[in-house]
């Protein structure tokens, strides 16, 4: 069992709290939130211990779950790591590339486990393609949300697109060659809609669009590779794989369409891999606990959190550079 304290019980923190209470590898020591009124009410509702300070929470815990605003992540994580406490930290890792690097340096001195909350890795639709060999050459991602003032303190790239950046970096596994991006701050002072085209050294191109000013919600990723097309609906938790099979392949699905090619008969099979019912947040938190208990590498490492954040900032800088050139 890992003794873990929860920091921040706002919108997402309350969801984490429910999940933490259901994980058998975790013993929740208690909660702390700088908003005393909110903290008291949550502690009462869930019958959990309320700490009077972060220091008190740290003293009683082996690990912390940081679910506070991004601007506070660095300070809070630094304090925990320096005391040798394992850290689960919500995405984005920090608000600046420099502070993210400083945390990586700190982890070298204090070898604790750190996992970043890129929860889409645990989305059932993404989990359903884990057994398929991926070598995408073209990726198209759309993440659209209806406007909500919560989260508008950061650009849509850090708020929404970062989820797809993490998935793309995880699937492509090749250095970035170039990017071009554009975006607009339509409603808030930060970018509300953004698009990026990423070109990787292995030839893969990823085209990502994120918007928080849409009329409907959508979270879709489509992957195209030499022998297959994969469609992931991360919102509806559905996955579809359209794959090319050889005539003599014993695994070819029964429902398939015949295709005459120069290499002989091929079969196009459409399959819907089984999507398990997973509570993604509960799963990410229990894998974090397991990484501590079994001394294994966390599923989403601090380096991956850093790479994703650095790419997000590169995209924002490119959009700023571009918009200066076309100032109206
Ligand atoms: P929120 O504003 O609803 O809640 C944040 C809570 O932290 C508040 O209750 C606030 O009082 C508390 N807080 C602020 N500073 C504190 C401090 N120094 N010590 C203790 N408590 C403090 O925010 P939220 O929507 O829950 O977001 C929290 C974090 O989770 C952000 O980093 C956000 O980017 C991330 N997030 C991730 C996802 C995801 O899909 N993984 C979704 C939403 C939010």
Account of the 3D structure:
- The protein is α/β, with parallel strands linked by helices.
- It folds into 2 domains: 142 residues, NAD(P)-binding Rossmann-like Domain (Rossmann fold), CATH 3.40.50; 166 residues, 2-Layer Sandwich (Dihydrodipicolinate Reductase, domain 2), CATH 3.30.360.
- Helices cover 34% and strands 29% of the residues.
- It has 9 helices and 14 strands.
- The chain is globular and about 70 Å long.
- The mean pLDDT is 93.
- Nicotinamide-adenine-dinucleotide (NAD) binds next to helix 1 and helix 4.
Structural class: alpha/beta
Strand order of the largest sheet: 7-8-9-6-10-11-12-14-13
CATH class descriptor name of the largest domain = Alpha Beta
- Which residues form runs of ≥5 with pLDDT under 50? none
Say which molecules are bound, naming each kind only once: nicotinamide-adenine-dinucleotide
Helix run count: 9
Shape-level CATH architecture of the largest domain: 2-Layer Sandwich
DSSP strand content: 25-35%
What portion of residues is helical?
25-40%
Oligomer: single chain
Mean pLDDT over all positions: 93
CATH topology of the largest domain: Dihydrodipicolinate Reductase, domain 2
């Amino acid at each position: 069992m890992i003794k873990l304290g929860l920091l921040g019980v706002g919108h997402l923190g309350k969801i984490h709290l429910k999940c933490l209470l259901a994980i058998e590898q975790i013993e929740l020591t208690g909660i702390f939130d700088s908003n005393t009124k909110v903290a008291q009410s949550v502690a009462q509702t869930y019958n959990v211990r309320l700490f009077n300070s972060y220091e008190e929470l740290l003293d009683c815990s082996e690990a912390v779950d940081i679910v506070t605003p991004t601007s506070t992540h660095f300070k809070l994580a630094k304090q925990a790591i320096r005391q040798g406490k394992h850290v689960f930290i919500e995405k984005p890792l920090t608000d600046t590339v420099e502070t993210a690097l400083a945390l990586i340096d700190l982890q070298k001195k204090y070898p604790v486990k750190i996992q970043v909350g890129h929860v889409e890795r645990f989305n059932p639709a993404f989990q359903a393609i884990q057994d398929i060999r991926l070598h995408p050459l073209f990726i198209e991602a759309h993440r659209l949300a209806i406007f909500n003032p919560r989260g508008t303190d950061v650009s849509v790239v850090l708020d929404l697109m970062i989820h797809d950046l993490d998935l793309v970096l995880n699937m492509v596994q090749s250095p970035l060659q170039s990017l071009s991006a554009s975006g607009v701050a339509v409603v808030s002072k930060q970018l509300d809609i953004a698009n990026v085209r990423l070109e990787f050294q292995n030839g893969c191109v990823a085209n990502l669009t994120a918007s928080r000013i849409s009329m409907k919600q959508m979270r879709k990723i489509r992957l195209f590779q030499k022998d297959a097309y994969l469609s992931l609906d991360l919102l509806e938790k559905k996955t579809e794989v359209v794959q090319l099979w050889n005539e003599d392949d014993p695994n070819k699905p029964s429902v398939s369409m015949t295709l005459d090619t120069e290499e002989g008969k091929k079969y196009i099979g459409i399959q819907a891999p089984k999507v398990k019912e997973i509570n993604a947040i509960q799963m990410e938190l229990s894998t974090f606990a397991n990484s501590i208990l079994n001394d294994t590498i966390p599923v989403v490492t601090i380096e991956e959190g850093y790479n994703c954040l650095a790419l997000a900032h590169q995209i924002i800088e490119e959009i700023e550079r571009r918009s200066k050139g076309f100032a109206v």
